[in-house]
Amino acid sequence: MALSPPTLPVQARAWDTRERILTAAVTCLADEGYSATTTSRIQEIAGVSRGSILHQFPSREDLLIAAVQHLAAQRDGGLDLDEETLDVGGDIDRAIDVMWSMFHGALFRASLELWVASAHDPALAAALGPRERELGRRNRARIQRLFGPRHTSHPRFNDLISLMHNSMRGVALTYSFDPRDIATDPHLDVWRRAAHHMLEA
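RE: above sequence
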């Protein structure tokens, strides 16, 4: 009796193709912007056929959102850090530093391109919203881990994180036209002092 041919190689090739497409989409979004990130350009960067893209992603919006979510999952929900770095023992200064690092790199740049584009694309906004909320929940859990149970139980913790998150995101936007060393940003001292004041008062 003849055995059925193994399916793993085919599945592996399909998975490899999907990974290449998603990686190419993120790269293009982060480096070239939303308007330049066409399916043709993604096809060129990934080195795949147009049929391969259309088979897995029926629309450009589906592909770009999947690409950002794929990168977020690879980076453990937005933090491109290992387990040891996440376990900072509730050190406020280190937690602020790690939180600040979330707003830099390919994931943030690619997400920013989608946020801006969604303001003029209702279909993109509708598809992006639920995924962004899920990513936000995962990031929130990791921020709580950074600060530790003693600080997260403080009655002002939620206010602090909302303030830090929005402030850091706003400052990070200026890096898109004025790149510099994130470790020397003068806002870091302000954020650290604010965190100490709110959590240790």
